[in-house]
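Deliverable D4.2, example record:
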Amino acid sequence: MKNVFLSVVVVATLVAAGIGGTLADFSDIEVSQDNVFKTGALDLVVSDYLGNQFQNAAGGISPMFTVRDVIPCYSNDIKLDLHNLGQGTQGNPTVYLHLKNFECGWVVPKLVYQWVDVNGDEVIVVDPPPAGTQGTGYPKPLNEPEYVGELGGLAGEDVDGNKVFVPGIGPSFGEGCELARQIHIEIRVAGPYPCDTMLTAAEVPGGDWVTLDLSEYDTDPANGIIKLNELECVEIDLGSLPYCYKIWVNFITHLQDIDEDDLIEQGVLTDPGTGYGWFDDTIPAEAKWDHWPTNAIQKDALHFDMAFELFQKPLP
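Output generated by the structure prediction step:
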């Protein structure tokens, strides 16, 4: 009982002295206010070779690539600038070129009528034959090289002066889109450069340009040439484009001939009489007809979209 009494006295004494409880007389509190968690952004800007910038344009951006009145063996190139004007301190975004929505246009041939008169001579008129003309007739394409190349007809004469008729390789529109199959494509890139670099594409040192390796898309590795149709709906990796950097892209095209011998090797054309081509390019008198299939792409047009895509992480 004595011990219990002494304990009560000690506790009471400590409380009276201010010792015990929460000890709140001494304290220190620091508050960090207005903390912010803000995300960065990818912001891709495309500039053409004139320096015109396109960003969030209604209905897309203006055509980067417009070539008209092209003849075989003609090369054309354009240069454009891709900026990443977003905000970010980490990561290494990747930019891609996506060629898509290929559509080929074709000029429909004008029809004329071929008639054979009573003497067996051909009479070709634009309209049905005038009254009094005897014989029968049928519609056929106007005897123009582009229609002969597409639909067949008289292509020329052999070394002996004999007329040579060819079957034609078909119109270059629809799923085949032959024109896209004859455009050799090459893509070069330079950079990345900091956004504040005033360097223009014309001033980029030659050694800075790197030709992209597109061999993985080549469906005919033997020739080592990448055709535009092989890149349809393909995501072409143009390289890394960090925040506040830019790269230059050089898009190069070359329109090629359609060689008769190439089509024969592909099993498209074969003269049933000889098993070879209709013309022999080793004979001077026939050499000018050796590339008659090229006429098939006259007056044709190819429309396609160029999508520039920037992703935070490379595509798998």
